[in-house]
Amino acid sequence: MRGACFSQGKLGPVLLTEHGQSLSGLKQALLEMIETLARGKEIKALGIASAGPFLRKARVFLTPPNLPYLQGFAVGKFLAEHFHFPLLLENDAQAAALGEVHFGCLKGAQNALVLTLGTGLGSGIVLKGKLFRANLETGPELGHLFWGGLDRCGCGKRGCIETLLQARALLNLASKEGLNLAQVKDLTPLLEKKEPRAWRVMKDYGQTLGTFLAEMVQLFGFEDIALSGGISYLGKYFLPFVQETLENRLKSRVELKPRRLVLSENPEQSGLWGMAYLLTKTFNPEE
Fold it and tell me: What is the pLDDT of residue 42?
């Protein structure tokens, strides 16, 4: 969990804390973080970016597939019992998208897609300069589009594209190559050593991601794309395969080719910047 204060256009020092995998642990960590950040300051509002799904306006979590202990958690009611400033709850991928288009690697973009690659596959869409939610509280969940296959997703369905692009997918690809890795970062030294099997993993992953992005470009007309999240640090290895596949898929529609396909420069802070933007526009629009 990360937190920071935002004031006069500047993001303060980032506070990190662990909360374990339980609701009680998260509640305690959340209270301690807010109390620490608020100490000696006049807090106008609080923003939380989290994986969903949840009811954004009611501030109640539904059934987060990657955070099952949050099911039914009324975070708004819980925090209101301890603090008196207003709360904004936003999907973390949507917040990351706002962070990238206003402060980060896609600054100035009007029609953009930001994917957060990690435990799951998050997506944030910006169209005509505004966050696109469609008729949904937290916007489209592109990671749960059907892509084929029988692997069960954390959401309960089978064949979601998330099952092919999340961290576990990289470990599965590595296993098929005979590489039994404990965690995704174990790929890095193998890639640095030019291990052929590790590079085949990058190629397979990059081609799947590139194909998915080509479909999204044809659907939404994105001009700019950024990749964020915990897996994005491997982007320097798989991005060439993404780019090649994307260009091949769009070669008959060159006018659709995105202007930018880039990696987030600071994936750990893009969500914080996004929440800072939302809070400023909501509670201090003249700043």
Answer: 86
Phi, psi angle pair for 145, to nearest 5°: -75, 145
Spatial separation of the C-alpha atoms in residues 115 and 264, rounded to whole Å: 10
pLDDT at 286 over 60: no
Tell me the C-alpha distance between 287 and 284, whole Å: 6
Q: Is the pLDDT of residue 188 over 60?
A: yes
Residue 41, pLDDT > 90, answer no
Could you tell me whether strands 60-61 and 54-55 are parallel, antiparallel, or unpaired per DSSP bridges? antiparallel
| Contact between 75 and 89 (Cβ < 8 Å) | yes
Distance CA 50, CA 188 (A): 28
User: What pLDDT shows up at residue 1?
Assistant: 87
Distance CA 25, CA 19 (A): 5
Which of 210, 124, 107 has its CA nearest to residue 164?
Answer: 210
> Going from the N-terminus, what domains does the chain have, and what CATH number goes with each?
2-90+271-283 (3.30.420.40), 105-263 (3.30.420.40)
Report d(CA 26, CA 221) in Å as an integer: 39
Question: Are the CB atoms for 227 and 235 separated by under 8 Å?
Answer: yes
Residue range 261-270: mean pLDDT, rounded: 94
Degrees to nearest 5, angle at CA 62 with 50 and 231: 35
Report pTM. Answer: 0.92
User: How many C-beta atoms surround the C-beta of residue 217 within 10 A?
Assistant: 21
Q: Are 202 and 241 within 8 A, CB to CB?
A: yes
Is the CB of residue 278 less than 8 Å from the CB of residue 98?
yes
